[in-house]
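QA checklist item 7 of 12: single-chain prediction sanity check.
[x] sequence parsed
[x] length recorded as 435
[x] structure emitted
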Amino acid sequence: MNRKQVLSLATLLSAVAVFPTLVSGQASAPAVPAAHAVQTVPGMPEVRDASNLYSETGAGKFSAAVAGALARVYVPNRAENTVSVIDPATLKVLGKFKVGTNPQHIVPAWNLKTLWVANNAEGRIDGSLTPIDPLTGKPGAEIAVDDPYNIYFTPDGALAIIVAEAYKRLDFRDPLSMALRYSIATPDCDGINHADFSIDGRVAVFTCEFNGAVTKIDLVNRRVLGTLTVSKYFDRPEFAAATASAVASGKAYARAKPPSTKASQSIAELCLTKGMPQDVRASPDGKTFFVADMMADGVHVVDLDSFRQIGFIATGVGAHGLYPSRDGKQLYVANRGTNLIRGKPGGKGSVSVIDFGSRAVLKTWPIPGGGSPDMGNVSADGDYLWLSGRFDDVVYRFDTRSGAVDKIKVGREPHGLTVWPQPGRYSLGHTGNLR
């Protein structure tokens, strides 16, 4: 082979590397440059875009694992122990079936083959999980599990993480049989609740609903790395210290009437107001975590590496659920319309839209006549945001282009609904935290 032939071969190889579709004839996702590649935990699927961990959940990016799944919205009705099934095309309720006591969330399995109903049986000891076959929409036999308020999965899919809220504990179980493998105690996280995971799968951040904090879990070494009290006054040390003191003393969720200006606020007016973190979601680059707080009426921003609060975004009354748009550019915030755990119908419910890049609220969509938007997810095409109306016994379908709202009557106290199928390669849990 002469020098000219060598150069031609090198040129061809270079072209193959840059334009793989010219050779294979098939579409191929652009490779992440080596300098920016994410070193994930063993067994976790690769991160294809280090700048957007939601890149594989874009509209239409369905896994072969969801082939044949019925297009449905599954709604757990907490107060009547049932699941309502909605046809998203017609907005009609197709039926309802019984499940265990107090169904809280409907969670896609890591392998996308099962939907799990988490029945935590509040104040009782007969918690359970009900599997749903997404190919038929029918429930299977219940599995007894301690206090399954929510379900997540380790990023490698090896274990299910049962959030045993009442016991301040995370139970790591076999993802199919749900047999217990080990537990991690979280004694400083009262009301451990919702979670999201680092871009490399090594750590998770869980919210602590009843002590105004978030906790960071090392999934590899199976230990708690720290617990951080969050506050809308994070940038005013004297108020942050007062809030932490109120939490430590166990003071109630008293709501001090806010003065006219932030500058005039005193510690005496604020120290009784304790946060109540709910849902949590990672930024597209995985560097920061957004935490909805239903007492602070907004979203805290936490830097993952340093594990300190770096921002707060005011949204609406009772900020609760967080859902990224299908393009990973915006974050939808369900504002439940009340600061109460048990609210009334017709509250000041709304949805705020946050720009991930600027962290600015772009728009807020109120619910005509009031409402209580809680948990849910975005439709597969990204055109709609589906949310349960917790205290209004309805489901809302928000048009993500206009903010227009449709309402569908369901059972009593609907909670963590899921839309199925959804785009993505695997599920990390909750109502569809796919990647």
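[x] summary fact logged: Residues 3-18 form the longest helix (16 residues).
[ ] second reviewer sign-off
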